[in-house]
Amino acid sequence: MSESSLAVLPKSGLEGLKENWRSDLLSGFLVFLIALPLCLGISMASGFPPSAGIITAIIGGMLVSRINGSFITINGPAAGLIVVVLSAVQELGQGDAMAGYRYALAAIVVASVIQILMGFFKSGRLSSFFPASVIHGMLAAIGIIIMAKQIHVMLGAAPEKGSSLFSTIAQIPHSLLNPNYQIAIIGLTGLLILILWSTVKNPLLKMIPAPLLVVLAGIGFARYFDLDHEHMYLFLPDASFLTHHEETVGPKFLVAISEDFMSSFYFPDFSKIATLEFWEAVVSISLVGSLESLLSAMAVDKLDPYKRHSNLDRDLTAVGVGNLVAGLIGGLPMIAEIVRSSANVNNGAKTQWANFFHGTLLLLFVVLFPRLIHSIPLAALASLLVFTGFRLASPKFFASVLLIGKEQLFMFVVTIVGVLATDLLIGVAIGIITKFSIHILRGVRPNNMFKIHFVIEPKDADTLVVSIVGSALFSNFIRLKTALANLENGKTVIFQLNNAYLIDHTVMEFIHDFQHNYESHGGQCQFFGMEYHDTFSAHPLAVRRMRRDNMSRRKSDHYGV
Question: Mind listing the pLDDT tens digit for each residue in 420-430?
Answer without folding.
Answer: 999 888 999 99
